[in-house]
Design a protein that fits this description.
The structure is a homotetramer. The first copy, chain A, is an alpha+beta fold. The first copy, chain A, has 6 helices and 23 strands. Chain A is globular.
Chain lengths: ~400, ~400, ~400, ~400
Amino acid sequence: MAETIIKIDLDKPPYENENIHNRWHPDIPMAAMVKPGDDFIVECHDWTGGQIHNNDDASDVRDVDLTQVHFLSGPVGVEGAEPGDLLVVDILDIGTFQESQWGFNGFFSKQNGGGFLTEHFPEAQKSVWDFNGMFTKSRHIPGVEFAGLIHPGLIGCLPSKEMLEEWNKREKVLFDSDPERIPALATLPYADTAHMGKLSGEAKTRAAEEGARTVPPREHGGNCDIKDLSRGSKIYFPVYVKNGGLSVGDLHFSQGDGEITFCGAIEMAGWIHLRVELIKDGMSKYAIKNPIFKPSPMAPKYDDYLIFEGVSVDEQGKQHYLDVHVAYRQAVLNAIEYLKKFGYSGAQAYSLLGCAPVQGHISGVVDIPNACATLWLPTDIFEFDVKPNADGPKQHVKGNIDLPLAKDK
Amino acid sequence: MAETIIKIDLDKPPYENENIHNRWHPDIPMAAMVKPGDDFIVECHDWTGGQIHNNDDASDVRDVDLTQVHFLSGPVGVEGAEPGDLLVVDILDIGTFQESQWGFNGFFSKQNGGGFLTEHFPEAQKSVWDFNGMFTKSRHIPGVEFAGLIHPGLIGCLPSKEMLEEWNKREKVLFDSDPERIPALATLPYADTAHMGKLSGEAKTRAAEEGARTVPPREHGGNCDIKDLSRGSKIYFPVYVKNGGLSVGDLHFSQGDGEITFCGAIEMAGWIHLRVELIKDGMSKYAIKNPIFKPSPMAPKYDDYLIFEGVSVDEQGKQHYLDVHVAYRQAVLNAIEYLKKFGYSGAQAYSLLGCAPVQGHISGVVDIPNACATLWLPTDIFEFDVKPNADGPKQHVKGNIDLPLAKDK
Amino acid sequence: MAETIIKIDLDKPPYENENIHNRWHPDIPMAAMVKPGDDFIVECHDWTGGQIHNNDDASDVRDVDLTQVHFLSGPVGVEGAEPGDLLVVDILDIGTFQESQWGFNGFFSKQNGGGFLTEHFPEAQKSVWDFNGMFTKSRHIPGVEFAGLIHPGLIGCLPSKEMLEEWNKREKVLFDSDPERIPALATLPYADTAHMGKLSGEAKTRAAEEGARTVPPREHGGNCDIKDLSRGSKIYFPVYVKNGGLSVGDLHFSQGDGEITFCGAIEMAGWIHLRVELIKDGMSKYAIKNPIFKPSPMAPKYDDYLIFEGVSVDEQGKQHYLDVHVAYRQAVLNAIEYLKKFGYSGAQAYSLLGCAPVQGHISGVVDIPNACATLWLPTDIFEFDVKPNADGPKQHVKGNIDLPLAKDK
Amino acid sequence: MAETIIKIDLDKPPYENENIHNRWHPDIPMAAMVKPGDDFIVECHDWTGGQIHNNDDASDVRDVDLTQVHFLSGPVGVEGAEPGDLLVVDILDIGTFQESQWGFNGFFSKQNGGGFLTEHFPEAQKSVWDFNGMFTKSRHIPGVEFAGLIHPGLIGCLPSKEMLEEWNKREKVLFDSDPERIPALATLPYADTAHMGKLSGEAKTRAAEEGARTVPPREHGGNCDIKDLSRGSKIYFPVYVKNGGLSVGDLHFSQGDGEITFCGAIEMAGWIHLRVELIKDGMSKYAIKNPIFKPSPMAPKYDDYLIFEGVSVDEQGKQHYLDVHVAYRQAVLNAIEYLKKFGYSGAQAYSLLGCAPVQGHISGVVDIPNACATLWLPTDIFEFDVKPNADGPKQHVKGNIDLPLAKDK
């Protein structure tokens, strides 16, 4: 068995573990070193570091401290890695902890981060999912069970100093364009809750003030939340600092394209088994700016779909110009209305679309003025038939249970 | 064999065929009537009605009259269809004409419509694709051959009067927000080149002035350019007028998600074999606003992918807020740079991504401020290995041929 | 459009067409010549040459003259092909004739060929299948519709003189081991009904007496009835004579593994579009004895299966030693009994398993004394749910129609 | 986490564990009881109970005591199960032990069991496979790595007394038809090495003398070695005794159709996570004789194949009558000769075809006198290109390593 080079204790705060960090900064020391060709295991907290609990009360989702996220395991240094190389990472496996066979999904309060449909679901709600081997189901969303397309939401290498500065600069410009907006337009550096791994003292203080937040995906990958970056995939990461510095976290048992609920997928603590190799000078050889990857040879085959279309006319009938975001929101809303006809609440449908292996396709982006997006709902995850027929839908779901909701204080 | 209820003559202008129209309007008379359960064949012009030719000169793409598009076959009336019903359409088959075994792809001049990457490829170019049974290849893009995911780019029912008014109103508001913009923000009604099917006289004149252009996808479906709406799929269309009025055109031999090149997919003339059924009052039963569909049981299996990521920071380094359009553009540009390392020109790579069965996924839309989009490039369409390895890319493509380009006049 | 190098007339007997033959012999002259790289179209009779009709009377199946089959189109000569080469054949497409949108399936009388289950279904029966674009259904087997995995049952190159002698010799030995058996153990040369293409006179007479029957698959491929040799596949055929001499016929709209009903798949007349290339000395380079092939990138996705097991204990409880034939028969019988619970007659179920894209796997061949075979029934071809549940099966099929049967005379 | 209801100790002989048995007999007491709806974990020895070791010496394969196999975990009783019911088993997951990250494959000496190709490989050889997360590779077979289609080779319910008698009777008849044959035609009851679980004293002695050997698959399922009965599949087992009595073992990390090497797949110790339900009177409701199953929604996607054909003419040129066993052997031999052209030894190729997710299809069973079988070799498991081309094969495998061989004593 491969060595577990980063261990965690679910009963202790991640801040006490010096192999964890929650900001991006080139000065964070390597938590461990490996060689090209090595495979090894890294344990990971859930993205919130244990703030959300396996119960029927959504107040933890409402009150979450988002300045703490994401707790990442690493950085792992790879001997010989230099800026300009590609770090080739095989995700050999991902698993859960025996003592933690569950995950959570939720939407934040609009006052605290919101989500893709925060105008429609402005208050904090959550669903809890139990894991049964490779399958999951939720006591809050009856009638579905499916196999997890398990993956890390967040993985990538440390940025260089120059890259970090660019990130901070461009995001500040955006934030400053509407600084009072709720939710905010961007998450800026925030030293108070920064955890900088093994850094301490003045070096830590300085890095904490500069460290980029982990929320957005960026050139290095990071919080891409790509559901297909699953166990078995092979990823080619750009290297920006000596030894690379690969960090990983935010494991998901399953997620739909878009991670629309923001909190987020089926979020979980667990472990990930990786193997690393290098392509020297690979960024230039292959003109790589962002990571590229090959998907896994093994993924759940939920490939009978019912597909919903959306175009970029918003809920108020306003015409937007080739806006895929608006178009996908319409497709999602269309799917939610459809599922409500089978007895689901809107919140249940919304959460399900965030958790299940739903596909979101950019179907048309040139037919002015309407972008067209499609949401692909896998029909085999349901215990009943959700396809349309001449008789109309049967209300298979009783409607006697719903997602817990915690009202804004 | 099913009856061909709408025939065309490729040697005659579509304006001479009264079973063709190029605007949406509820007053267009039915070209033919069928009954629920019937199957029938409809012949279609390519979307430009024959303006583009099988040669090595892109001036036809440069000089195209886009006010003429799209030439649609129909409307086909279905007995008993009423507003509020769902018209269930099985696409039983799609095929080419024996005398027209080719298609075209191109990008318009920025002065005349442009395309997804018009800032990068501002002048008109085209590629011509030959069909060999179910496969296609292009003399302008060496090293690739693939099976076509053949589909109609445009299909849907006639809008009601109220819906048409809403379309015209909301698109005018957008257009008026920047009326000088090139390319324009929207295509407004334009009577001069309108073809209103069997309408004539004053009725035609009035309808031509009101008729919505066919460019954007809308609530009824229309120009969705969804590559998976292919032969074998089953679509549920909203009905807005008596008898439904189903029109179809803009056949594509193959297309990538987004139809990024705008002109467009591999565009072709051909025929489509349809079967229709009704779900009475289906819109209300299933809460349907836009069409929904089930994909075909038969599609080319190009499912070994190399996946490119993009985030919503644009080419100038500017940060956009959760803008999937920008993110997908970055993923596309990343793929183009990658393919250039194998010897392709940028134009060849761009055209290929518009034609091949490329997937575009909305991977993350909540991780502020960056949307993340992914472009899935099928690797089996290439005659050589395009995956990265330690040795770096081999320049399999010689670079001695390229897409014809017609400079702006 | 590729040239049609062999044409047929469905209204004329295949014996009148000198580009057709129904025996294998090296002396049959090439019907047409092509060059490596060429693509071309060949038209084909159904395997019986029109003996079976689109009606509800199985007497044509009962009275079929099996000494006439199979009517093949060819041989097509490829310039430069020499013994020892591999002839690489791309099946670019396969299609039906507009005037012949139907096919047939049947089981012969045990007195005249029988079938896999001839002990259970000893008398002639047939089902007729209508084609609707890429889909088919039968008026004799309600409740199913599926897309065709269209393919040639029979394709291969002419044998050399030495190979032909070996075939005739070894099959005669087998036949002679039980010459009175019904059905016969092998089909031996039979000059009376031989059609030797362009051969005439004494040369024809001699070849007709030696020509191998087309029934069995052999080293050259021939009547392999491999359902996955479908449109889009690429096949590498051994070459035994100068110019190769590729012949093809016995087109199937769809078939299950094993072609258990013998008559056989959904049999049809139609055309096939081929492209040829050569690998010089390929047999030795790759140690090729029998053809090898790559399956198509495009095939119907009926991949939700209900799987039936069978072991090599026969219907009378007798134990056989690792006999896959017996094991597969048990799996087939198990599936038939299962389908009868939904209202199908045994004959309907048997015919369906011969026609639908059923898989037959050799699951275990070493666990003495029982071979284990599995029959994979695709569940999506049914219009109702055939999976088991706690409530038991619903009899969706009324049982008021059945396959026509023609009693032995 | 589900409860582990049967535990094993890899350092102790399975004979010391009373929740293990190696014969089928209705009198074996339940090792544990569960209720319908329960899920639970069962640990399993490898099929030989630890006789084969992770080293480079095949003498353990040569000297294996096959009268001991297979060591099964169970029987697990399900409350309320009665003869005639169907026991519905969900395989929720299967995994390896942290301390045992390897498996073995081998062919027995012809003197001791042999294998599918024992005439070609008459002496004992083995290959050892290391597990790296979901992937495996072998130090004895370079150039391949693939994800495991992990499954139990053996699973089923206890037979009734009557069924047991029938098994013993029919197998004895076969054995007696050639009692001196090597390998034997069947494995008969053998008390000396029988392990009857919790049975002891006289009851054990009597049961041991009657207990059916576990080698062959039978009506109840048992040693089916169906590679697709993998984690995620749902199986419907016939119940013959009160409480069902489900036993399981012979876990495989991966296997090809046919398990041709007999020893067998990639054999391993590990654990299996199951969930059980009942369909009362299900055998009669659905006419079930042998188990049926639905395959998993999650399996490795190795679906680019090179397909080898074989017909039922044996290695000596003798014609067999519709013998799928002979035909599949020819297809396997053809694949081995092909792989040797890339540098593999025959033994390496044979072992690989037993271990990798190879498909074996019954392609034609009616075209007298030749059965046609196909072997589907997945091409993506190789680190190099194994498809044919005009240049001929490159010898990627150096040939400096081979499978250990232990000569017969």
